[in-house]
Amino acid sequence: NQGVGKNILDLLEAGQYDKVFDHPKFVEPIKSPASGFVEAVKALPLGKATVLLGGGRQLPADVIEMAVGIKLLKTKGDKVNTGDVLAEIHHNGKLTEDIRKQIEDAFVVGPQHLPIKRVLAVVRDNEEVQEYETFKGTN
Question: Does position 119 have pLDDT exceeding 90, yes or no?
Answer without folding.
Answer: no
